[in-house]
Structure formats: structure tokens, C-alpha cells
Amino acid sequence: MSTCRERLIFFLFVACFLAVPTSGDEVLLDTGIKVKGKVISRNREKVVVLVGKKRMEFKSEEVVSLTIIPPKEFKQGEEALKRGDIRAAIGYFRTIAEKERGLFAEDALERLVQCYARLGQLDEAIEKYLTMVKLFPETGYAGHFPWHMSVSTTPRISSKWDGTPGKLVRIIQIWLSVCRNEVSDARAELKPFLGTEANGAAYEAAYIVLLRWMFETGMLDELTSMKPELLESHGKTLAAWGNYWRGRAYLKKGDGAHAALSFLRVVELYPGYGVLAGDSLFMVANYFENNNKRQKALAAYREVYQRFPVCMLSDTARERAGG
């Protein structure tokens, strides 16, 4: 608000709603005020809350915390994930994605991308990823695609995507070519997406693909020389992926200790993305095992499949832990 008077009116307006006992979501602002209603949207820029019939918007930096009550099916999907029942989780999350167009539809689509990747169904993972980006162009989940997975087949990509997802379609096509070692200079291919939209979905995705290309083409020194503080200045998503490829580069150079440190940083930075965090923790467990630290390795393997059941190495982790 630009004036004290406007801010006072705003506070009084909110107070009127808070005086009425309500249930639902809660937004804690940096002023200490708690706004209760229904959170209908959140992204990098703002949080939108429906209070009665009034739509209220808050800048993301004004929001200290969000307490959001998820739909029943979303809770059931999360519980299924914890049990490692990926197919059951898909059923619950698909219900949310199909019947909602608000906050939890975005979260459900992100979970579906992870689940389909976990099952190796790359066609479905791509479809849900592009649906998410089309419905939620400002999504914070642009990095939540299995950019690090091995690709043995060429997935089907529908021709229906245009607009914002069209950029992601092109980036996914470049990624597939990188996976097949068919790109001589990914920097040139990705340059249109690494320009002006420094915080957009296409920028994040393109940056991650660039990191993979650097790894695949043997630019190991460039990856290991990336400073952690520089990586983290780009935000948690790119910092996590940067540390992941930095760890892979150290591993390929035979420096397991530094690799493990980089992989641990991924888990610290980005535990919410189970596909990447779980695979990174598996690498740490493997390092312990290769260095005769059996008990530490077993504990790390158990944490992989218990904490990150959606990661693509969770079954292998369970086998190695004897679970």
C-alpha cells in the first residue's frame, strides 16, 4: 500500500474477516497478520487468496508462511507415495489434476511427472509436464522434470503444444538429442531460451539441459570449477541441478569425496523434488559403500527408499539395504 491511510483500511478490512471464525487456508504476512480463506494461486510473484467473495493478492516476499488444507485425494496420493505405491498415487493425483484448476492441480501435475518418470513412462511424464506449464506458466516446478534420466527410446511428443509450452517442447527435443549425443553445440541451440527470461520456466529448463550437455561432452573441469555460492545465486532449483551435475563430474574424475559433498548439497537444497534428491542421496550411499563405511551406506540407502520412494533408484536402494 502506498499510504498509511490505505494500509490502515487494508488492515481493518482483513480484521473484519478475522473476527469471524473461519476454517481453511491461512497466510501469515510479514506484518504479523494472518489471512484466512482459500489459497487459489501461488507462484514466484504472488499468492492469491479468496476471502469470502473477495479476491486478495499478496506479493510473495510479503508472505512468511502458508498453511494450506489439501483435498482428501491429495493427502491419499501423498500417503501412497510414502508407501512406495506409485500406481495408487497416480490414481489420486490424476483425480485432482482433472477436477481442479487451482493450486493443487499444479501440485498434482508435478507429482504425476515424478510418478510417471519413476515408472519409466516418459511419454506420460512429458505430457503432464507440458500440461502443467501450459496451465501454470509461472510455475515454480520447471526444474521438476527428469532431465538426468537415461533415454533409450524416443518418446512421443504431441503436436498440439504451442505458446509457452512450445518453448518447453523445443527444449525437451534438444534434451533428447543431448541424451543421444547428437548435439555439437547446445549453447547455440539453447541461446534463445537463456536470454531475457532469467526467472522463467524456459530459462530454468534450458539451463539444466545445458549442464547435462556439458557433462555428456566431457566438460568436467568447467562443471567442477563452478562455485557453490554462484550456483546458489540462481535460486534453489538451478543450484540443486548445478550441484548434481557438479557431483557427477567429480565422480567421473574419480573424486568421490567431493562428489558426495555436491550430492549432499542437492538433498539439502531441494528435498521437495524426490526424483533428484533421492538419486543424489543414492550416490552418497554408494560412495560410503565403496569406501568400506557399511553402516553409513545402509543408513543412507534406507533413507533413499523411505524418504524418496519416487526416485528412480529407490528399488535398488532397498535391495542394497536388505529391505
Describe the structure.
The protein is α+β, with helices and mostly antiparallel strands. The chain has 3 domains: 4-67, SH3 type barrels; 142-217; 220-323, Alpha Horseshoe (Serine Threonine Protein Phosphatase 5, Tetratricopeptide repeat). It contains 15 helices and 5 strands. A 5-stranded antiparallel β-sheet has the order 4-3-2-1-5. Strand 3 and strand 4 (54-59) form a beta hairpin. Helix 6 (164-179) runs parallel beside helix 8 (201-216), helix 11 runs antiparallel to helix 12 and helix 13 (274-290) runs antiparallel to helix 14 (294-307). It is globular and about 60 Å long. Mean pLDDT is 87; it is low at 15-22.
In short:
The chain is an alpha+beta fold and about 325 residues long.
Sum up the structure in keywords:
SH3 type barrels, 3 domains, globular, 323 residues, 5-stranded antiparallel β-sheet
Distance from first to last alpha carbon:
56 Å
H/E element order: HEEEEEHHHHHHHHHHHHHH
The proportion of residues in beta strands is 5-15%
Helix share, percent: 55-70%
Poorly predicted parts = 15-22
The CATH superfamily of the largest domain turns out to be Tetratricopeptide repeat domain
The helix-and-strand class reads: alpha+beta
CATH topology grouping of the largest domain = Serine Threonine Protein Phosphatase 5, Tetratricopeptide repeat
**Overall shape:** globular
CATH architecture of the largest domain: Alpha Horseshoe
Q: How many structural units, i.e. domains?
A: 3
- Strand adjacency order, main sheet: 4-3-2-1-5
Round the Cα radius of gyration to an integer and report it: 21 Å
Largest sheet: 5 strands, antiparallel
Number of helices: 15
Mean pLDDT: 87
CATH class of the largest domain: Mainly Alpha
